[in-house]
Amino acid sequence: MIEKLKNIVDKAKADIGKAHTREELLQVQQRYLGRKGELPILLHKLSSLPERERPEAGQKANEAKQTLLRAIEEQHALVGEKNEKPAEEIDVTWPGDEMPRGHLHPITQFLRRVKGIFYSMGFEILDGPEVELQKYNFDLLNIPKDHPARDVWDTFFVRGSKEDLVLRTHTSPVQVRAMEKRKPPVRIIVPGRVFRHEATDASHEAEFYQCEGLVVDKGIRVTDLIGTLKMFLQETFEKKVRIRVRPEFYPFVEPGIDIDMSCLLCGGKGCPACKQSGWMEMVGSGMVHPKVLKNMGVDPQVYSGFAFGLGIDRLMMLYYGVDDVRLSYSGDLRFLEQF
Ligand code: FA5
């Protein structure tokens, strides 16, 4: 037994000395000390020795194991120093892999364009709350409680709120809010999200963007309104666009005017986005109602004004050639990566 142990140790030491890489060393270790290695197999046979020989053989076996472990450890340090592959050379001047980059949502990109155009026309850019008091969303805009006009805006009411809160149905409440801190002349726009409890289709979403506009000064007329919007549309689309002006009722303006744009998606022939009419309703607008001017603290005898609410999503659709407004909010990367 002791002879056999000596043989194993000699053979193992020779093999350890020949191992030139850590991988080879691991193989040698497995061969001699692994679960089915030569040394454990021999140790297994200890129990078959006569009892008086066992303690010495056991001690020798233990020593043999320690000797081999030490030899492996020493060789490990040696091959580690000599034969480990040198670290790969790095050329720091080599251009790296391009990382996937995010970008702004098409609505955000388009909104920035809109803001830039109005800014260059001398408009101040304001913000307002998305959760709004009914007072601003309706009452001060000449839409009293129980007035049938309230039904036009399918409203999300905030349940349990003491103060009659709603998700604003349009950006118009900011007209009055803005005038609480300003005196005419004013020229403001208010881009922002609005919410309506309505069925969706290619040109209707339940959550969308509007951009409110308000101009109050002496001698403001309907022609100023139409001229401003025409100029804005021309600047936005960088070409003459065909518009159609229709009378429309909004309680906070008199007269009220809707502006449609010739559908650029189908060239006016008719498609699902324009409901086959060749026209898309883009802007609700009008001359600020004298009652609303009074609510703003402005004397309607001295001042007049116009206001408008642009449908940002629909303008964006025509600008980029998107044929369904719902794509914007789908979160679908196949859509978003095109911008
Ligand atoms: C209004 O919301 C009025 N506050 C606009 C206004 C402002 C009138 C100031 C007079 C003075 P209307 O509900 O029509 O109006 O909406 C205005 C624009 O928002 C529409 O012309 C349309 O372009 C867009 N819009 C309306 N509903 C949706 C919808 N569900 N999805 C996407 N865009 C919409």
From TrEMBL:
E.C. numbers: 6.1.1.20
Highest taxon of source: Bacteria
Cellular component GO terms, alphabetical: cytoplasm
NCBIfam families in UniProt: pheS
Record family assignment: Belongs to the class-II aminoacyl-tRNA synthetase family. Phe-tRNA synthetase alpha subunit type 1 subfamily.
Binding partners and assembly: Tetramer of two alpha and two beta subunits.
Protein name: Phenylalanine--tRNA ligase alpha subunit
Organism: Candidatus Kerfeldbacteria bacterium RIFCSPLOWO2_01_FULL_48_11
Gene this chain is encoded by: pheS
